[in-house]
Design a protein that fits this description.
Layout lengths: L5 H13 L3 H40 L3 H15 L2 H13 L5 H14 L2 H6 L7 H32 L1 H14 L11 H16 L6 H45 L3 H14 L2 H13 L5 H14 L2 H7 L6 H20 L3 H4 L1 H15 L2 H22 L1
Helix pairs in contact: 2-4, 2-9, 2-10, 3-4, 3-5, 3-18, 4-5, 4-10, 4-14, 4-15, 5-7, 5-15, 7-12, 7-13, 7-15, 7-17, 8-15, 10-11, 11-12, 11-13, 12-13, 14-15
Length: 387
């Protein structure tokens, strides 16, 4: 009746065997990035297959900047990822289905919508008042910064077109072509287009154009969702061991510019600002990281997340796809440059988040009203009433 106690050792051994070596996991991430670009190209092909009627309907649906802002918020909340929504916007603009002026407010809305995840993450401590106060403030300072950035930069963009004009100028320098021109396919474009061509040929020629377009849209969005999810999962395993140690080193250095750089680097590495900010919430809630040390890391995450739209622009043919991706980057860089250097302005989002956290601790209904109101009710009303 003797036998070795296999249950624990075997489980550990099997878990170790299932874990991918670091070089293999890095290669997997590169392959998933390729799948992501194929998904963006498939999305573009689906939009083209739907025809001009769909394009006109889409442009009519977002008839003014405020409804575009609301659409960007709601779309990002529903998919729980600004990476997916901004990649979709890049695909729409790159396919010519969405004009640049209409897309700019949508990109800004995506910046607001992405903060819902870390705000919800703060609710894990709702029964422990002091931890909840710190965690909720740590989450909502991201909201407050993005709301303040949109309040300043959206009117500025609407009156001067400073962001879009700067992005057009950069696009012309980077791609060496005028906006609206169709450049020769790049090697990256040819590589990601090849499987899409096979997919288009695989769809029966007798399928009606709009139906084929819907199929391509569904396939494209599915590839984008799956690829981004797996990229996030694998990148998290590649760098997760160093993230918390990096955050703790920032405490000793007082954050600031170093914190911004760390926020950018971590977010680029894991391909998700949500991961970066969601990691910060429990650290702030536990008192490991102060609110003011976490703040610059959050702002760096805002900048780092724009890499996804820039990657997506590699897969679209029209230069406008790169332009809207650059608008996303310029928006976050400009907000950082305007709001962070001056101490009196820098801490407005932090003070606002602390005040909101105090209200949330005093009355839990404030939490529900805030989350539902900002991320669902206001965007839906904005789309319904303003269009």
């Amino acid at each position: 009746m003797r036998g070795p106690p296999l249950s624990y050792d075997t489980g550990t051994s099997h878990a170790a065997k299932r874990d991918l070596p670091t070089p293999l996991r890095a290669a997997l991430v590169i392959a998933l990035l390729y799948v992501f670009l194929v998904g963006v190209t498939t999305l573009e092909a689906g939009i083209a297959a739907l025809g001009a009627g769909f394009q006109a309907g889409l442009l009519e649906q977002v008839s003014n900047p405020l409804s575009g802002l609301a659409a960007g918020i709601l779309a990002t909340v529903l998919v729980q990822s600004s990476s997916v929504s901004t990649a979709t916007i890049v695909g729409l603009v790159g396919a010519g289905a969405l004009g640049l002026p209409a897309a700019v407010p949508m990109i800004m809305g995506a910046n607001i919508g992405t903060t819902v995840t870390n705000t919800l993450a703060a609710l894990g401590n709702i029964r422990r008042s002091e931890e909840f106060r710190r965690g909720f403030a740590g989450a909502t300072m991201h909201d407050m910064f993005n709301l303040l950035a949109v309040a300043i930069l959206l009117p500025l963009e609407l009156t001067t077109r400073v962001l879009s004009r700067s992005a057009v100028w950069l696009t012309q320098r980077l791609r060496g072509t005028d906006i609206g021109a169709v450049p020769p396919p790049s090697p990256i474009r040819r590589a990601v287009k090849a499987p899409v061509n096979l997919l288009e040929r695989g769809i029966d020629a007798d399928v009606i154009g709009p139906i084929a377009g819907v199929l391509l849209l569904v396939i494209g969005l599915t590839l984008i969702f799956l690829a981004l999810g797996l990229i996030t999962k694998n990148m998290r395993k590649l760098v997760a061991g160093t993230i918390e140690r990096t955050m703790n080193r920032i405490i000793g250095r007082g954050g600031g510019s170093v914190g911004i750089v760390v926020g950018i680097a971590v977010t680029v590495a894991v391909q998700s600002s949500t991961i970066t900010t969601s990691i910060l919430v429990p650290l702030v809630a536990a008192g490991i990281l102060t609110l003011r040390n976490a703040y610059p890391i959050t702002l760096g995450a805002n900048v780092g997340t724009t890499i996804t739209a820039l990657l997506a622009s590699l897969a679209v043919l029209r230069p406008e796809g790169l332009t809207i991706a650059l608008v996303h980057t310029l928006f976050n860089l400009t907000a950082l440059a305007l709001l962070y250097p001056v101490p009196q302005v820098r801490h407005i989002p932090v003070h606002a988040a602390e005040w909101l956290a105090d209200q949330a601790v005093a009355r839990r209904t404030v939490v529900a009203a805030y989350v539902v109101g900002l991320f669902l009710l206001i965007p839906v009303l904005g789309i319904v009433l303003l269009d």
